[in-house]
Design a protein that fits this description.
Helix content is about 55%, strand content about 5%. Strands 2-1-3-4 form a 4-stranded parallel β-sheet. Strands 6-5-7-8 form a 4-stranded parallel β-sheet. The chain has helices at about 5-15, 25-30, 30-35, 50-55, 60-70, 80-85, 95-100, 105-120, 125-135, 135-150, 155-160, 165-175, 210-215, 215-225, 245-250, 250-270, 280-285, 285-290, 300-305, 310-315, 340-345, 355-360, 380-385, 385-405, 415-425, 435-460, and strands at about 200-205, 230-235, 270-275, 310, 335-340, 365, 410, 430-435. The chain binds iron/sulfur cluster (2 copies).
Length: about 450
């Protein structure tokens, strides 16, 4: 049965007589953040799980009460309801944006999950995925197998099956590049970027899923940066950013991966680090917090975090240069809705830059998406381990998209691209999900084609 806020606070304060958490646990160390909550409830209507489940336990305020009860010992770590409601949190951090008191919910959630993981093992499916992502050879093998499956078109066929297997296959099918999606005549013959390189030297985070399943978007990221006068430097030795591990409570593995990335970006000597996956960007920007207690790495982590930018931030800082109209190549004017990834909007607080990117693309009609600031339900591997809640959250997003009837939903995170893309495919919608950088890249390709055509015509003239 659902609980109200008052019932929850009373229940927690009645207590179970257990001991308070040890002072060394991550949640006890983060407890100062709990004190900022004044229980006003402004965050409730921003919370997708509260809206879907209508249970105060599944709201930010309710979860903070549960965290407080763990800290003071009125609920035990072994209490199954705590695990249930903390597990159901998407980690979208919409509550942080809504909170007038500055409660650092994301940090508290991470600390709670790390504390709970000592009492409860992480579910086997999550452990298996985290194990794959932590090892570069295992990850490369898994992504190669995924690409083979995608190339056979089996993923698209199996994506119609009901259940999680079907949804997972639809997610994989949704990673097919727009170049492979008729009738788009995309930039099959990439243009040569003509920037002068006078801006910062940028290292691009390759990303696990981006490099493995969206390599075209990574190439588009490099081209659009070059067009906008950035220099590109290579940064070999990169690993998974550690976001999945940190969000699951495995902070030690997240720290190990973070150290490898910090060393890689230091060696590269870049002025900035460009990230085209919002979840990874939010993670790298939090490396300073992750390694704050490590005297050897704290300053280095903070320095790398300070140099990290979402790709939209870098492009917006440069203008960006306008492209050519993409409509002609795509069969007419394109209607585009922007859906901000939670880890860009709420975790990184980047809201305007993606609109600056889209504004540089002639031939699109930007359509406002209702409740765009609400999560799509992807949240890393949440959609695989909490399918029921994830589906309920996704259903609201798909209904909003269907209501605006657009050609494209632009969103800058692989998890959102796959989640929304899979939902659209399985629902038989004509709309496709795409990274904003792919749209800008198409506009630059269109401008290049127009320039080439004009110069050919000029040469033909007597
Ligand atoms: S988290 Fe913030 S918005 Fe939510 S109840 Fe606490 S103080 Fe209010
Ligand atoms: S992170 Fe998202 S799902 Fe979790 S409590 Fe905050 S708003 Fe709700």
């Amino acid at each position: 049965m659902s609980s109200t806020g008052a019932e929850l606070r009373e229940g927690a304060s009645r207590g179970g007589g257990q001991c308070a958490l040890g002072a060394d646990t991550p949640l006890a160390r983060a407890r100062g953040g709990l004190d900022a909550c004044v229980h006003c409830g402004f965050c409730l209507q921003a919370c997708p799980t509260y809206l879907a489940l209508e249970d105060e336990n599944d709201s930010p305020r309710g979860r903070l009460v549960l965290m407080r009860a763990l800290v003071d010992g009125s609920l035990a770590l072994s209490d199954p309801t705590v695990q249930l409601h903390i597990d159901r949190c998407l980690g979208c951090r919409a509550c942080e944006t809504a909170c007038p008191s500055g409660v650092p919910y994301g940090e508290l959630l991470e600390a709670t999950r790390a504390t709970l993981s000592a009492a409860y093992p992480i579910p086997w499916i999550a452990r298996a995925i985290l194990w794959v992502f932590a090892g570069p050879i295992r990850l490369a093998a898994a992504l190669t197998a995924a690409r083979v499956l995608r190339a056979t078109r089996l993923a698209a066929a199996l994506g119609r099956l009901p259940g999680r297997v079907g949804f997972g296959m639809a997610m994989l099918a949704a990673t097919r590049a727009p170049t492979a999606t008729p009738p788009a005549t995309w930039s099959r013959h990439p243009y040569r970027p003509r920037g002068d390189g006078h801006r910062e030297r940028v290292a691009i985070l390759r990303g696990c899923v981006m490099a493995g399943l969206f390599p075209g978007t990574n190439r588009a990221t490099a081209r659009t940066l070059l067009v906008n006068d950035y220099g590109i430097v290579d940064a070999p030795g990169q690993r998974c950013c550690g976001a999945l591990h940190a969000h699951a409570g495995d902070l030690e593995t997240a720290r190990r991966l973070a150290r490898a990335n910090i060393a890689a970006f230091e060696r590269a000597g870049a002025d900035a680090i460009a990230v085209n996956a919002a979840g990874c960007g939010a993670m790298i920007k939090s490396y300073g917090h992750l390694l704050a207690d490590d005297p050897k790495w704290a300053n280095r982590a903070a320095a790398v975090a300070a140099r990290t930018r979402d790709i939209s931030e870098l492009l917006a800082a440069a203008g960006p240069r306008p492209g050519g109209p993409i409509g002609a190549a795509l069969g007419g004017r394109q209607r585009v809705a922007y859906d901000p990834p939670c880890h860009l909007l709420h975790a990184q607080r980047v809201s305007d830059a993606p609109f600056a990117v889209l504004a540089a693309i002639p031939g699109i009609e930007l359509v406002s998406l209702p409740d765009a600031d609400q999560c799509c339900g992807a949240a890393g591997i949440y959609n695989l381990i909490q399918p029921t809640v994830s589906d309920a959250v996704l259903a609201a997003k798909l209904a909003a998209i269907a209501g605006v009837d657009v050609d494209w939903v632009a969103t800058g995170n692989p998890g959102c691209l796959m989640q929304i893309g899979a939902g659209l495919r399985r629902g038989g919608h004509r709309t496709r999900a795409i990274h904003p950088v792919d749209l800008l890249d198409a506009a630059y390709a269109a401008a290049d084609r127009a320039r080439s055509g004009a110069s050919a015509a000029g040469q033909a003239r007597p």
